Amino acid sequence: MTRIKCCGMTRVEDAVLAAELGADAVGLIFTARSRRRVDVDQARAIARALPPMVTTVALFMDEDAAFVDEVIASVQPGLLQFHGAERDDWCAQFGRPYLKAVAMGEGDHALPRLRAFPGAAGLVLDGHGLGEAGGSGKAFDWSLTPRELARPVILAGGLHAGNVADAIRVVRPWGVDVSSGIESAPGIKDPSRLAAFVAAVRAADATHV
Ligand SMILES: O=C(O)c1ccccc1N[C@@H]1O[C@H](COP(=O)(O)O)[C@@H](O)[C@H]1O
């Protein structure tokens, strides 16, 4: 079964709906480089509203360690996600499981970075270029994804209900991560796009067993 992370939540009702529809994780973004940024109070309200067994993911991009510690203390995320130039040992300092995003926008040139995070719980392969923020809605050439990677792959970048089945067929990821493909505006999730995305993933799982 392909795990589903719905990222860039800014409203309690969107996060709860994602969970009810079957999302395994919801992402809360703390970088100022995002149009979907939440503050700590907003994030805590969203995290507290979620039912059990849905993981809260706190996403950072080159933030100070002290700020990451503050979010951990207030929001109690189950997973951290680092989306910037953070190194593996820096990500590991918080003693929490983490995902590391790798920018796949440069094609082949990105491949060595897929081996640079042995401590990560998983790698988020996103479609943007190196140094750019995620949430761009840009897909990359999925066929570049190596078959054998030491860490589980979470596929991201430009996914939506219309292309996620193809993405799953090509990459066979552990999970998929979506932000703009389930929105009506940045940070505002669209219930019908959200439902269609989850249904498309589950249909793909049923087809590609
Ligand atoms: O979503 C953002 O605004 C964002 C900003 C900075 C770093 C990461 C961000 N989001 C991550 O990018 C993926 C893919 O987004 P999209 O589906 O292409 O819009 C998203 O799921 C987040 O993990």
TrEMBL record:
EC number(s) per entry: 5.3.1.24
GO biological process entries: L-tryptophan biosynthetic process
Gene Ontology molecular function terms on file: phosphoribosylanthranilate isomerase activity
Gene behind the chain: trpF
Top-level enzyme category: isomerase
Catalysed transformations (reactions): N-(5-phospho-beta-D-ribosyl)anthranilate = 1-(2-carboxyphenylamino)-1-deoxy-D-ribulose 5-phosphate
Protein's name according to its UniProt entry: N-(5'-phosphoribosyl)anthranilate isomerase
HAMAP family registered for this protein in UniProt: PRAI (MF_00135)
Family statement: Belongs to the TrpF family.
UniProt source species: Frateuria terrea
Entry keyword Isomerase: yes
Membrane-spanning segments: none
Keyword Transmembrane among record annotations: no
Pathway: Amino-acid biosynthesis; L-tryptophan biosynthesis; L-tryptophan from chorismate: step 3/5
Ranges for domain N-(5'phosphoribosyl) anthranilate isomerase (PRAI): 5-199
NCBIfam families: PRK01222.1-4 (NF002298)
